[in-house]
Amino acid sequence: MAESRGDHDDAPSTRQIHHGYVPPAGFASVAPAMHRASTVLFKDVAAMRASSWLDKDTYTYGLHGTPTSFTLEARLATLEGGTHAMLVPSGLAAIALVDQSLLSSGDTVLIPSNAYFPNRSLATHELARWGIAHRFYDPMDVESLRAALGPDVALVWIEPPGSVTLEFPDLRALVRTVRAHAPRAVVALDNTWGSGIAFDAFDLDPGTSPPLAVDLTIHALTKYPSGGADVMMGSVVMRSQALHDQLALTHCRLGLGVGPNDVELVLRGLQTVALRYAAQDASARRIARWALGRKEFARVLHPATPGSPGHEHWAAQCRAAAGLATLAFDPAIAPERVDRFVDDLRLFGIGWSWAGPMSLAVPYRPDSGRVGAFAGTLVRLSIGLEDADDLIRDLEQALEKLAA
Length: 404
Ligand SMILES: *Cc1c(COP(=O)(O)O)cnc(C)c1O
Fold this sequence. Notes:
Layout: H1 12-17, H2 45-50, H3 67-80, E1 84-88, H4 91-102, E2 108-112, H5 117-129, E3 133-137, H6 142-148, E4 153-158, H7 171-181, E5 186-190, E6 216-220, E7 234-238, H8 241-254, H9 260-270, H10 273-292, E8 297-301, H11 311-317, E9 324-329, H12 335-344, E10 360-364, E11 378-382, H13 388-403
Parallel strand pairs: 2-3, 2-4, 4-5, 5-6
Antiparallel strand pairs: 1-7, 6-7, 8-9, 9-11, 10-11
Helix pairs in contact: 3-9, 4-5, 4-8, 12-13
The structure holds pyridoxal-5'-phosphate.
């Protein structure tokens, strides 16, 4: 509605609200305008009745999208090679939306045993309570996935690499195994690590036709797309209109809107995502190489580093790696001493999440799930945008205290 519906007989308080606002024509700023709305006005009742929540050429209600959120959705679909995207308040909400949209009582969901812990926790608590079964499979053993598949399986999660242990699976073999043995199952990939940059989730084996693709990706925009450690958001991206509509209806019914200020922050961060990803990738590789030469570490878990679990799968399928590296301490070094090592770091913050400007370190004890496969305490490093030499010097001074 470009013009005012009020007229000069109306009181000033009424005219405040009905003041005509016309966006400036010819104001071609690089940054897209930020629009906020709960109410979106229709030109008449017929237009209101004809509107559809699923139609992204028109607007219905703030919860279901604004020009600002539709712009971010379109850019994310482009980044990840999909055609449709939807936004949710966090990466975890994206996982929950996929589960709630696609699973019914009696169905089974398969989850990698090294997956992001809250994904597994949702399955063992809420999904179990709702009559949805789950099985965990070893993503590094394709036979383990094949054995877990059955006619009850409606959804298979894939997460490359596993959270914390950074084991990189054979993505192509996992997807082909699901297609061969459970044609009805939807394949969902957590694309937070790859971010649309390290590999193409919708074209996993370039040159094959039709493309080898997952059905949908979720992405914690909280991580690389934001890049600022200052906003939470998640997305779901897919190529199928039917799958989009199924998820979009559940999305509407659950009321999963996102705020325009947060969308604006992610739109801003997204413009530099490739540069930041490359810089953090380069620093993480340098730190992983340095760590290989230190006797305190039994293993260096980093997909682009030779000797890391699944390195050959990473090399065959990826063109980049995120800025995460996990140091597996020698099991002879007690967990309490590793905790002190983390406390002694000067530049690495202690906190959750990753892909922000500040490097972070989190210790994981061998008794926490899949971490146990590596015997010693693991310290996951999220490499930020500091100078890599400074970070290495910081790690060295904390190791010196550990030795003392
Ligand atoms: C952080 C993360 C999520 C969840 O994202 P939030 O926005 O923090 O909820 C999901 N998957 C992976 C692999 C993550 O690292």
